[in-house]
Write a structure and sequence with these properties.
The protein is an alpha/beta fold. The strands form two sheets. Strands 4, 5, 6, 7, 8, 9, 11 and 12 form an eight-stranded mixed beta sheet that branches. The longest helix is centred in the N-terminal third of the chain and has 19 residues. The termini are far apart.
Amino acid sequence: MKRRTLLATAPILGPALAPAIVSFRSLAAAPSDLLNASYSATVELFRAYNALFEESWRAKTGTPVTIHDSNGGSGAEARAVIEGLPADVVTLALAFDVDEIARAGLIAPDWRSRLPDGGVPFTSTIVFLVRQGNPKEIRDWPDLVRPGVQVVTPNPKTSGGARYNILAAYAWALKANGGDAEKARAYLGALLRHVPVLDASARNATLSFVQRGLGDVLIAWESEALLAIAEAGKKRFELVMPSLSIRAEPPVAVVDKVVDRRGTRALAEAYLGTLYGPEAQELIANNYYRPRLAAVARKYAARFKPVPMVSVDEAFGGWDAAQKMFFADGGIFDQASVQSQ
């Protein structure tokens, strides 16, 4: 199966276009098919993993299986599932989006306890991607608000990756200002003044920076930045690690109502469980995500630079609290957006 790349990619297919590539009637009639609703930055990872799982399942059971994907911003994918997209599993950017699907009655509330590490088979963090030679001398968060610097980051109303970006920026600003929340909010407002446009998803933001040449710095998942460097070469882009970042923990879960209706629970549970195995963890590392399996993590330690990180739980009291404080209507992000105008 040919791997799609960042530099030569078709437009990401979001939930609105999913019926064009997936016959949901045939899915309902064929429980050897599985639909994964995933966030945009994992296109390459899950394309490779799907091929691995399809081969493994056929070898173990003698039965062919086909994995389909729907890709878009994490929040947009979650809403699509709530509104009827018949995904058997979700692999989203943040736990809040899975919890939203659970609150809609489609996923059991105990989904975190069903898989190791709270249903998070790999992690990442937030970094800066700059152009070769780092002409704007971007070293840390304060440099993003210097005169003449344009920043590319997606919209946190639709993108889970963008929410991590905002929280990472705020966590740094809060620490840098001795816990002063007003100064941290002011920093977010200043940062947003340097963002010319908010793309709908993390992948679209990456394409704006890499393909369209917009901006001086991209705030991105480490996996996106490393992928761009690998495909374009170090002569085009460089990675900058900030002095403080955040641990990105993208969760996975079975959509209980869908698998029970379709009879695909065993297949769906195997699909997610296999993500924790050695072969999948190698694949995860080779797609620039930080693996959970200790032996694989040690093998790829040189690839993933150390960076001080906070977690959403420890810094913001979990995703429900962070969502309400930052991204609900009238929250800190909206306040910072008004300040940026």
